[in-house]
Specification:
The structure holds two protein chains of two kinds. Chain A is built from 15 helices and two strands. By secondary structure, chain A is mostly helical. Chain B is built from 17 helices and 24 strands. Chain B has a six-stranded mixed beta sheet with strand order 6-9-10-3-11-12, sandwiched between helices. Classes of the chains: A mainly alpha, B alpha/beta. Chain B: This is ABC transporter ATP-binding protein.
Chain lengths: 386, 515
């Protein structure tokens, strides 16, 4: 509970109370990880090309700012897959299958786009929902395996990444309406199925990002305020205690995996249904037997955002931002892969940034705090047993 | 100036936010049994871990035979002749007893283990000290008592002269305890020095020469055991007077609330059944105690009773309703409250706040949720009420993260939750395990209060004092069967021990109440 950590007596704005919350410490931990990751990235750039390191690094940091529309556009799918991973993670499930769910969602949305003839204004909405259903289906299967047979969801969902991807590639290639063999990619989707653009010039940013942010907020409310969220987090923290309290653990596993799959599926739908800046064209899909990278980027997004839906909004935007910057660093001769290194380091650091954070806090307290003061939670330890 | 073999002088050990040992001094004489007494969290185990090299103290020094030594890890401790039997044994389950004893100091020639040589030495030691073991049995196949003897032989094999026993009697039967105390006495007479961590006062009175008392990380004092008594020791330990007897009004027997018939539960560990054909009744207004040594099917029985695991045969009727096939939630609604054996595993979501844990069984009730949205204001109000009523202490009240609370207060939170929930039977499994005397006193009072309020209480306990003091009726469980029904007023601890170890059994009276 973010805000519940405030002590009940104090009302109004209380900086001290805010800085003590779990959310705040997750935020500073992420920030610390980002700073360390960027410093490391800079060092790598200096080794790669000392003369241009500064210029390249400037692009990485600030490059995205000039293309904020693009940043949001590329943030949309990874925000959804990030939510898909993060939401399942709240229940203690590692949904590594976001990639397959994403691809499945994309195919379902595409199918509706090509094969169904619906009025403009309704077509894209139906296609988005179709994408969600596709993803839910691909989340449901590992979920039911886990619940009914106790098969580890990591294994099933990895397998379903491949199964989903090969299925989709097969279906696409065998459908003459969808697939143009000569270009080895899909046909252009009709404009009626494309999500309305937000109208920022030079960018494909569309209503998808708005939907993604709304979804994240809804998930936040579900997790914080509802009995379902309460059960889900309780199961994630302590499966045995949730059983003991009579929660329907198996049902919750299936429901959670379905929701997670649906989220990734939406991500796929948002990606393929995005409008194209060039009139008469659209996004296309190449069935070339490669697993969608956006699914795996979702893991990074979820980790950096501490699986908190609101955190994921920011982590997805940030990762998209430095990816844009990385592309721009190309201009001064850096390979965009440098950004993948930086992101990897950020994730690496964010894994133990929480620990560093508390060590840092302790160091500051012992250095600058009054002697003999103890941390708040220690009081309960020493006060007991009267 | 006396001759001390080990001196721990002014030891201070801090953990983030808490001072576990604050300027503690402990002197161990050669050839004495020295008890270390304190409540949970008093710092006993920390102090011993410092001596055994698992932790390094921030301040203070350790001397052996007057010389300052530095103990950085258990290997250093071993070199200095310090050995320890941990509360939870550190044995390799799939190795034999012999392999465990020589583990780390295997006699070898060019890398080949010389087992026969080791065996000779082990057998010799085990005969000399009366520590009977089977050197070739796998640890996973032998009893807890024998596992402990293996641990002790491990220390003897390494020729340790300072032996630390960390709550060694918790897992033993009264007969085994007696045997162990005798062995410890024997070690002392031979010139070995014993440090004996415990919070059982009877054992200290029986075996120890001197006793050092810690309270909340501070040194309270060292006394000669023969100049003191239990009351004085407990006062030193807790800081106030403690009553050892439980005040109970005469029992007002009511209707049968829980009726268990022929319950059989398969074991997860082996092919036999863990619980065999168990039948009994619990009436309103009585405390029935299921006594037995750990691992005789109590855990499996409770799992089946509360719905955590399935049983293969039998039936359970709660207040006239057959709940044999009911879900956990249905049993809970039908009137079963359950204080689980492992409060961290089952009883609490440690990352949740206190208020969230207090509604763990009730969050779905209309009082706390509306259309799936939790009414946090109601939860807060409810939690504040319970915290006040049950005196649950915590750093920040309802929003305290439960993990940061002390064990005693965590248990109080569970008890508050389970008692306040509507119930007819309270299943309390080892409710006082690991708690100090103050908290134990409190919990016993609550159990008796439930009984006086006309509820049935099924207490599962390994502690003999608890069994004898709290219960109205004792059922002894041995190897999955109920081997005896005893009246605590007419039976003795010794007799109870014989039933618990399977040496004696009577047929349980056939209960003819309408189930």
């Amino acid at each position: 509970m973010q805000d519940n950590n405030k002590s009940p007596q104090k009302k109004g704005f209380d900086l001290k109370a805010i800085t003590k919350t779990k959310g705040f410490s997750a935020f500073t931990a992420a920030l610390l990880a980002i700073v360390l990751g960027l410093i490391f990235g800079f060092i790598v750039m200096i080794f790669a090309n000392p003369d241009r390191a500064m210029a390249g690094f400037r692009y990485v940091i600030f490059g995205g700012l000039g293309r904020f529309g693009d940043v949001l556009y590329f943030a949309t799918p990874i925000m959804m897959t990030g939510l898909a991973v993060g939401f399942a993670f709240k229940m203690g499930l590692f949904n590594i299958g976001a990639s397959g769910q994403y691809t499945m969602g994309m195919f379902f949305a595409m199918y509706v786009g090509f094969m169904w003839d619906l009025p403009t204004g309704l077509h894209w909405v139906v296609a988005i929902f179709a994408g969600m259903i596709g993803g839910m289906l691909w989340g449901f299967i590992p979920g039911i395996f886990k619940a009914a047979l106790n098969v580890n969801e990591v294994i099933t969902s990895i397998m379903f990444n491949y199964i989903g991807m090969y299925f989709v590639d097969m279906w696409v290639q065998s459908n003459a309406t969808m697939y143009i063999a000569s270009k080895s990619c899909t046909n252009y989707l009709p404009s009626s199925v494309q999500i309305p653009s937000l109208g920022i010039a030079g960018s494909n940013v569309n209503f998808g990002i708005i939907f993604a942010i709304i979804t994240a907020i809804i998930l936040f409310i579900v997790l914080q305020k509802t009995t379902f969220g309460y059960e889900l987090k309780a199961t994630g923290y302590n499966k045995y205690a949730s059983d003991y309290a009579g929660m329907k653990g198996k049902r919750n596993i299936v429901v959670t995996m379905m929701i997670a799959g649906g989220l990734a599926g939406l991500g796929g739908a948002f990606a393929i249904l995005a409008p194209s800046a060039i009139a008469g064209s659209s996004m296309t899909y190449e069935p070339i037997n490669i697993i969608a990278a956006n699914g795996f980027n979702g893991i990074a997004v979820a980790l950096l955002g501490s699986s908190n839906p609101l955190g994921i909004i920011f982590s997805a935007t940030f990762i998209s931002h430095i990816q844009r910057g990385g592309t721009l660093a190309n201009l001064v001769g850096f390979k965009p892969e440098i950004i993948d290194v930086v992101i990897a380091v950020i994730i690496y650091f964010s894994a133990f940034a929480m620990i560093m954070n508390s060590t840092l806090a302790k160091f500051i307290k012992t250095r600058f705090g009054k002697k003999g003061t103890v941390l708040p939670n220690a009081n309960s330890e020493t006060k007991e047993a009267k | 100036m006396e001759n001390y073999i080990v001196e721990m002088l002014n030891i201070t050990k801090e953990f983030p936010g808490i001072i576990a040992n604050d300027n503690i001094t402990l002197n161990l004489k050669k050839g004495e049994v020295h008890a270390l007494l304190g409540e949970n969290g008093a710092g006993k185990s920390t102090l011993m871990s410092v001596l055994f090299g698992l932790y390094q103290a921030e301040k203070g020094e350790i001397r052996k035979n007057g010389e300052v030594v530095k103990i950085n890890n258990p290997n250093d401790a071993n070199t200095l002749g310090i050995g320890m039997v941990h509360q939870h044994f550190k044995l390799v389950e799939i190795f034999t007893a012999l392999e465990n004893i020589i583990l780390g100091v295997e006699p070898n020639k060019m890398g080949f283990i010389q087992k026969s040589e080791a065996r000779e030495k082990v057998v010799e030691l085990s005969e000399k000290y009366g520590l009977s073991i089977n050197p070739d049995a796998l640890i996973e196949d032998i009893s807890v008592g024998m596992q402990q003897r293996v641990e002790i032989l491990k220390m003897l094999y390494r020729e340790n002269e300072i032996l630390i026993f960390d709550e060694p009697t918790a897992v033993l039967t009264p007969q085994e305890i007696k045997e162990l105390l005798k062995i410890m006495r024997g070690f002392a007479e031979e010139g070995k020095s014993i440090l004996f961590i415990t919070h059982k006062l009877n054992e200290i009175m029986d075996v120890a020469d001197r006793c050092t008392v810690l309270r909340k990380g501070k040194y309270i004092g060292t006394v000669n055991v023969k100049d003191t008594n239990k009351e004085e020791l407990s006062k030193m330990m807790v800081g106030r007077d403690i009553s050892f007897s439980v005040d109970k009004k005469p029992m007002k027997e009511g209707e049968v609330v829980l009726s268990v018939r022929n319950v059989t539960v398969p074991s997860k560990l082996h092919k036999n059944n863990a619980v065999k054909n168990v039948s009994f009744d619990v009436k309103a207004g009585e405390i029935v105690c299921l006594a037995g040594i750990d691992g005789n099917g109590q855990t499996e029985f409770v799992s089946a009773l509360t719905g955590l695991e399935k049983m293969s045969e039998g039936s359970i009727v709660l207040c006239g309703k057959d709940i044999t096939k009911s879900s956990i939630r249905e049993r809970s609604v039908a009137g079963m409250s359950h204080i689980p054996e492992d409060r961290h595993k089952h009883g609490l979501v440690l990352e949740y706040s206190l208020e969230e844990n207090l509604v763990l069984q009730r969050y779905w009730e209309p009082a706390f949720q509306n259309k799936g949205f939790i009414k946090f204001d109601e939860v807060r109000k409810y939690a504040e009420g319970l915290i006040k009523r049950f005196d649950v202490r915590s750093g920040q009240g309802p929003v305290t993260v439960v993990r940061s609370m002390s064990g005693g207060n965590q248990q109080k939170a569970i008890i508050a939750r389970e008692i306040d929930k509507k119930h007819e039977i309270l299943v309390a499994v080892q409710p006082t395990r690991g708690l100090d005397v103050g908290a134990i006193e409190y919990i016993h009072k609550q159990l008796v209060e439930r009984r006086d309020a006309g509820k049935g209480v099924l207490l599962v306990s390994l502690e003999l004092d608890e069994v004898m003091n709290v219960s109205d009726r004792i059922l002894v469980m041995y190897e999955g069967e109920i081997v005896g029904e005893l009246d605590p007023k007419t039976t003795t601890v010794q007799e109870l021990g014989l039933y618990m170890s399977g040496a004696k059994r009577n047929t349980v009276k056939e209960t003819n109440h309408a189930g």
